[in-house]
Amino acid sequence: MSSTEDLLAELKSQVEAYERGSATAEYDPEGRLLRANDAFAELVGVDPAAIAGTDHRSFVSPEVAGSAEYTELWEQLRAGSNLTGEFRLLWQGGRDRWIRSSWVPVKNRAGAVVKVIEHALDVTAGKRAAADAAGKIQAISRSQAVIEFDLEGHVLDANDNFLDLMGYRLDEIRGRHHRIFVDADEAARPEYRAFWEKLGRGEFHSAEYRRIAKDGRDVWIRATYNPILDPDGKPIKVVKFANDVTAEKLRNVEFAGRLAAIDRSQAVIEFDLDGRIRTANENFLNTVGYTLDEIVGRHHSMFCTDEYARSEEYRDLWADLRNGEFRSGRFHRLGKDGRDVWIQSSYNPILDLSGRPVKVIKYAYDVTAQVRLEQQLKVAV
């Protein structure tokens, strides 16, 4: 065998080996199939024995086949241009299938294209996974404020939700450092520098953060800082997803202020639903003369006379509270030394998010002096 024949045999063997691992088809310059291997026939969902002569248009939707882009594709192939890219095929049964193809025109000695060879790879699973991921990202972007940073903290991009929340345009923040959203004192602290160093190492952060809008107002966000990794696991940027919780934060501050005011002015004690003491404030402890350690875990009945604690009225009180029913009035209680204590109080069942009682809080005023005065006046009369 001559060296030329050896070379041709080697080339033929290489082509056959490549075709065994690749979906391969050959077309005439008008797009009609001349031949295709079994892998390609399986890829497009056509019987290998009947695939010859099939027009490539049958593999794509009518909209694609009639488009200017499709016409241009075959004009470029007939002109001898090599093309690569991803293409959507209409698989047998009407289901879409995506392939990544390379198209190679074959020319004769005169330079005219006599056929086109396509090598294809099924990328449907990857395409669907990418579409799923893109859809999830779009859903997040529609509902959350999103901003991207480089590893040093400079802004790369931000969505409209973030820009609206902070009052900026994108061109006003792109390239600037994250510290424009942070109080100057906080930005100067070592903890702030350490925060970005940790993100640069790929560490995730999640918390509530106070940030400063363009007009100087405080914005509270519940946010996650997410380092994005390359295929080798190295951080390449940071994406923050955030929700505005300013209104919630202000409500919580108001509630906390109200509770603090109540705690300063009233006697407060908490019970579980069975009446056992969980905690009490200083005003309550001073009213009854106990320390907190002396009452935590004990039953409310320790403040009642034995007769009242055994009564049906007392049992009904706690049954009603366990059912979420509010009670208020003037009550006779006993202090540590057995002295009489009169309180004007309300028993308030606290409900969980499902509306179920979880504990009872009592708010009370010591009206002992008032009751004694009333009793003295009655005696005098």
Automatic annotation (TrEMBL):
Residues 28-63, 146-176, 268-298 form the PAS domain. Transmembrane segments: none annotated. Gene3D superfamilies: PAS domain. It comes from the Bacteria. Residues 83-135, 205-257, 322-379 form the PAC domain. NCBIfam families: sensory_box. This is PAS domain-containing protein.
